[in-house]
Amino acid sequence: METKLKSVTATLFLCFLLFPLVFSESNDGLVRVGLKKRKFDQNNRVAAQIESKEGEALRASLLKYRLRGNLADSQDTDIVSLKNYMDAQYFGEIGIGTPPQKFTVIFDTGSSNLWVPSAKCYFSIACYLHPKYKSSSSSTYNKNGKPAAIHYGTGAISGFFSEDHVTIGDLVVKDQEFIEATKEPGVTFLVAKFDGILGLGFQEISVGNAVPVWYNMVNQGLLKEPVFSFWFNRNADEEEGGEIVFGGVDPNHYKGEHTYVPVTQKGYWQFDMGDVMIDGKTTGFCAGGCSAIADSGTSLLVGPTTIITELNHAIGASGIVSQECKTVVAQYGETIIERILAKDQPQKICSQIGLCTFDGTHGVSTEIKSVVEENTHKVSGGLSDASCSACEMTVVWMQNQLKQNQTQERILEYVNQLCERLPSPMGESAVDCSGLSSMPSVSFTIGGRTFDLTPEQYVLKVGEGDAAQCISGFTALDVPPPRGPLWILGDVFMGRYHTVFDYGNERIGFAEAA
């Protein structure tokens, strides 16, 4: 199952076949950029499997530091560094220079820089498999030369800044600062069907503090309104992938009214989100609120391991068995239940039984060490991290079951089942394609409104006929306070709900997609 799961997981990135792009500008003052999506390509699995193995150690390392609270020291947890684009789906075309040199890019609301391969990229094989920007061929090129690097979850790019005109549809953004990538290591960019990334996030997370393309579109008066919106076509049988509309919204892309919520922290398009429910029942973890990011550069729904495990259990997804989780339940399960019933503060219980320390807001590993000590105590620190994390998840699960008046025996049985559904860090879980009709709905509370997803909407299907495999649309990522707990609502959610990014009013809107 594990080999099969890795194979299916890898396919999400290498799955779609790019079609020609369609640009249009109508008389309503809106600028439309047509998107195309790739069809699943089973033949590229081997290359993607290599990438999955290559990135496994880094993702595990990132997870370890998140669990130990290291990132909690910063208000600016670098979500960009956690992105891997392995499941990237939707792409569009832009031009850079005069005359325009064409590139296929991911329009990514989860980052803020524009980068494409450079003609000066000599030592990365990936650069030879994609179009490269040649400054000498552009009459509007301006030299900059400032060095730049962006680190992602399974790769990194480095190079230098340049300035040139960028063509998006019929718009020409003048003197746009962008990165010419001269190094694209790793398999991600080698097998990628896209050439670069066009970030649509805020300048606060822009590498080099470069002014994002979107800012310049607004500042240069190219748009009717400082608003852009995404419509993704989730019908796999249709060639049309969707549209990005710059300057407003297209009423043909949605039904009813949008529910708007304010941007709570500029950088990413981040907002406050309420409870997450399975078949209308609370999962408990976000009942007091969680943060969320609307991210067009991520296909799946990414959330705290605690909830993702509950969701994967509810839909019968097969994840990686966590022996540490089961050990915590076996050794401390009854004690945890007793302390919850005794009205002990849930966030302190794991520190009271010696598995975590308590910093005043949340539990952290008892094995937090300096960088020097880390090299000496990798194994012991890792085990302690796992115990602390498993304990905290167990407390949440048990607390939620006690609210439903379950017996101790039933609670321990249920939590052990959840332990078996724990996914791998940044990994996906497989589900039975024949069981979609019996799977529950999953709902997100945003702005006081409930946004439902059916199994057909949150399960991704790979392949056809008897060879078809299905992937849970939920994957785990733990971001500690103050940035987290955090959800990343990717294309699985944005495909169901038309999304408006209102830069002028610093808000995000969701409505049922047409």
Automatic annotation (TrEMBL):
Its main location: other. It is found in: Vacuole. The keyword Methyltransferase does not apply. One of its GO terms (cellular component) is vacuole. The keyword Signal applies. InterPro entries: Aspartic_peptidase_A1, Aspartic_peptidase_AS, PEPTIDASE_A1, Peptidase_aspartic_dom_sf, Phytepsin, SapB_1, SapB_2, Saposin-like. Gene3D superfamilies: Acid Proteases, Saposin-like. One of its GO terms (molecular function) is aspartic-type endopeptidase activity. Disulfide bonds join C121-C127. Keywords: Aspartyl protease, Disulfide bond, Glycoprotein, Hydrolase, Protease, Signal, Vacuole, Zymogen. CDD domains: phytepsin. One of its GO terms (biological process) is lipid metabolic process. The active site is at D108, D295. Belongs to the peptidase A1 family. This is Aspartic proteinase.
